[in-house]
């Protein structure tokens, strides 16, 4: 699932580097939540890989739920409009929520999500994002766990897509310019 010849410019993080960072973050989360049960909320579709690997690297008691939120559509730029496509299946009143995301770019998606979930009265809300772009620092978002801070390039793989493709790339890579042009 990792080779679609010619579509990528360069690899930012290999599968091994991602896996090793996931283990470090998982250990940190286990230590922080000792004795508590975490409700991990994954943001579809991008967070599927991060959720699958992170929760298996953790030893804490956890359960999972999913939301589908989309702000990008088919392009490479945020449309600026966040839409809920699928809501949580359970009540989160009194729960300790850990939102799991693949990437924070503008921070728009998570700002909206945190505000939305906070109104449902959870005990706590924290964020784990595998990747974070520079622009995210302008957003007043309290992100407790970050995998990697990355440069402002359009990256794909490990759940991250371009026009819904390349999510199954096991490395994280930048797209070759000819892919945008077509
Ligand atoms: C992407 C990504 C984050 C969000 C980050 O999702 O997975 O959820 O954009 O961008 P932001 O910080 O500028 O809001 P997208 O809307 O593309 O949906 P997807 O997860 O299904 O790809
Ligand atoms: Mn997403
Ligand atoms: Mg996307």
Beta-strand content: 25-35%
**Widest sheet: strand ordering:** 4-3-2-5-6-7
What oligomeric assembly is this protein in? single chain
Number of helices: 4
Gross CATH architecture: 3-Layer(aba) Sandwich
Instruction: Tell me the name of the CATH class.
Output: Alpha Beta
Question: How big is the Rg?
Answer: 16 Å
**Approximate shape:** globular
In helices, the fraction of residues equals 10-25%
Give the strand tally: 9
**What is the CA-CA span between the terminal residues?**
22 Å
Q: What average pLDDT do the residues reach? A: 92
Taking the sheet with the most strands, its summary is: 6 strands, mixed
User: Which H/E pattern describes the elements?
Assistant: EHEHEEEHEEEEH
Estimate nothing, just give the exact number of structural domains: 1
Please characterize this protein's 3D structure.
The chain starts with 7 loop residues before the first strand and ends with a helix. It is of the alpha/beta class and 182 residues long. The chain is globular and about 50 Å long. Helices cover 24% and strands 30% of the residues. The chain contains four helices and nine strands; from the N terminus they run βαβαβββαββββα. Helix 1 crosses helix 2. The structure holds 1-O-pyrophosphono-5-O-phosphono-alpha-D-ribofuranose, manganese (II) ion and magnesium ion (MG).
